[in-house]
Give the backbone structure.
Amino acid sequence: MLKKLSIITVGAGLIFGAGGSWVQQADAQKPDWAGEGKPDHAGPPQGKVENVIYMIPDGFNADDATNYRWYKGEDAVWDEHLKGLHKTYSDDSRVTDSAAAGTAMASGVKTNNGTVGLDDEGNEVETILESSEEKGKSTGLVATSTITHATPAVFASHVESRDNEPEIAKQMLANDVDVMLGGGKDFFLPESEGGEQDENLLEQAEEAGYTNVETRDALMEADDIDVEEGEKLLGLFADGPLTPEMEREGTEQPSLSDMTERSIDVLEQDKDGFFLMVEGSQIDWAGHDNDPTWAMKDTEAFEQAVEKAIEFAEEDGNTLVVVAGDHETGGMTVGSNGEYDTKPELVKDVTATGAAMADELNEDRSNVEEVVESHTPFDLTEEDVEEIQEAEDPKMAINHYVSDQALVGWTSDGHTGVDIPVYAYGPQSDSFSGMIENTDLPNLMAEAMKVDLGDK
């Protein structure tokens, strides 16, 4: 005999019980930003969107979100704003890379892995950043990688290979992005000064109206930049990528939240509004290394940046914040080794990445126990020491050891093809609900901002 399934439908105001009967229920009270403008702001029922803050935690999936919740001990700021999932496949693979995923998320056009800002036939595709510029809005890009890395690159450049960062730098500068903050100074300096460029782009940037800052203090003090007058901000805080958040203390580099806050401060001066993309780049790199500590601590830094964005959106009333990873990295699991538990909070006291610990090992790795125990709260057994000493890749061995203690599993050192959570806050945020394509994300933003997004 078939049993009737229990189906609960809250949004429709109906509840179907186990017996198949239903009762009418008053609609649950909607949160402040359930697709409506704030009551104290004038505007149409769906809310006017003048600004979009697009936040991309590279490599972040539902497993990262769940482990992070246990790590933190409470919900993350984005949890209550979950809207749906997006599909990540690229034009030539079911498992995307960041260039193809980013191109889809920036332009609404699928492309091949490795390709930046071009469709699968090599044609340039217009991005949501470029469309925003055409509408008269100010624009910004922020990343903890080099600013010319795949994800920021797709918004303001068009090249066949993501590896061509010198050319990406030239195009990003020519694209007149108002704020660019991250790493990658080498790609703006000529070879004669130790860089990767054939000309001095920093000098060109200054001639084009950019204020150039290279430290956190300089960034936080740069408060006289007027985008309405054509003034812009460039911050390159490292020759290559920025340091992982857990190792940032003692450097002169800003945090991701610092860069987000300052970008908003500059861009909000534009009466026509702004578009800002913020990437938590190194969550992805932690996934490639199967490093749970790096993943959790860079996720924490990303959450602090999201908090800055939502705080601004709450006050402004016309800002849409969208949070969506571009793909998953590492195949992280919540629980591992057949145990019905997970303990990611145990990595809070880990003080270095697996890569940094591996760098401290001597030639014969006789100091494994000393190094690992000095950076973790764990006591290694003789078997643990031996496994790390004999491992082909000591970095991965250390990370798998730490992961085992935290009961966090991994299935890959590359990307996987799972669907990715989409979170949204602000007017028209409900447009991002349900199962959507990654190409829908920029189109929905363009519709919300009333900008035209199409092929160049």
In short: The longest strand covers residues 138-146. The two ends are 60 Å apart (CA to CA).
